[in-house]
């Protein structure tokens, strides 16, 4: 079994931060180690925008981190059961946990896009991906069917016909290597895109997501809390534990035991070739 907890940080407004913590024991005693951070934004139409995801690379066992972080994401999203879910896939080295462990890996653009596509398909059958690496059918008939959030990169793009809108997005500097991933519930679908999509180890990850619980809620402005977290050092388990203790009252956190995935029982992931699509310039 593994010992983990999820803390929630919220105050006013529509933003919330969730952090996955793992309790480890070594010769120095019991350590509380930050594993992942997820910042979300919600709107008044039951939409949810995943603003950022960052990890420390300190999860133990290290080779199973992806499965537990994906289960953590599912847990957070399912707290709200949104009709509309969106994120932007764009590789960045350190968003929250600065001075991270050298074990931390930054996914290449096409692998990160596949990562988010898998996560979304574990919750929704109608998923749209639009990038210079991969594209699926567009979910909507017009641009107004997208949700626009406060810190949503789409909000910085002029509202034009939907094909032109998506083309403009892919020409932006921050989108050349990125992409948009959107999912909607069946009852919200106005176009088409339900498809059979295989996600390796989906049943195990979804089952795991049901084991998480909120172990502590902090009333604090999200950006204020982030500024404190970013001053820490997350290069090792001991140092990371000392850093998080400066921002969180660890004595208040409730941990729970969750199952340890058996690696030999995991489905193997086959890499598929990805065709890179070059964005065409608007005439």
Automatic annotation (TrEMBL):
<protein>
    <submittedName>
        <fullName>Uncharacterized protein</fullName>
    </submittedName>
</protein>
């Amino acid at each position: 079994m593994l010992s983990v907890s999820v803390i929630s940080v919220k105050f006013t407004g529509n933003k919330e931060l969730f952090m996955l913590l793992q309790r480890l024991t070594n010769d120095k005693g019991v350590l509380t180690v930050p594993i992942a951070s997820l910042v979300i934004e919600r709107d008044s139409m039951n939409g949810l925008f995943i603003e950022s995801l960052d990890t420390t690379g300190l999860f133990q066992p290290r080779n199973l981190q992806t499965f537990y972080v994906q289960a953590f994401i599912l847990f957070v999203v399912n707290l709200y059961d949104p009709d509309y879910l969106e994120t932007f896939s764009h590789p960045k080295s350190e968003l929250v946990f600065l001075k991270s462990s050298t074990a931390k890996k930054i996914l290449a653009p096409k692998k990160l896009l596949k990562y988010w596509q898998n996560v979304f398909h574990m919750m929704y059958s109608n998923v749209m991906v639009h990038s210079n690496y991969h594209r699926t059918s567009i979910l909507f008939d017009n641009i107004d069917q997208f949700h626009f959030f406060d810190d949503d990169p789409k909000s910085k793009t002029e509202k034009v016909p939907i094909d032109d809108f998506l083309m403009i997005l892919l020409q932006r500097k921050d989108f050349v290597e990125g992409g948009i991933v959107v999912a909607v519930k069946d009852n919200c679908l106005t176009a088409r895109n339900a498809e059979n999509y295989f996600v390796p180890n989906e049943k195990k990850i979804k089952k795991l997501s049901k084991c998480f619980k909120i172990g502590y809620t902090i009333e604090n402005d999200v950006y204020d809390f982030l500024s404190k977290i970013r001053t820490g050092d997350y290069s090792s388990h001991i140092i990371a534990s000392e850093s998080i203790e400066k921002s969180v009252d660890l004595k208040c956190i409730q941990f729970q035991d969750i199952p340890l995935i058996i690696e030999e029982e995991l489905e193997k992931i086959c890499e598929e070739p990805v065709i890179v699509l070059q964005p065409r310039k608007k005439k």
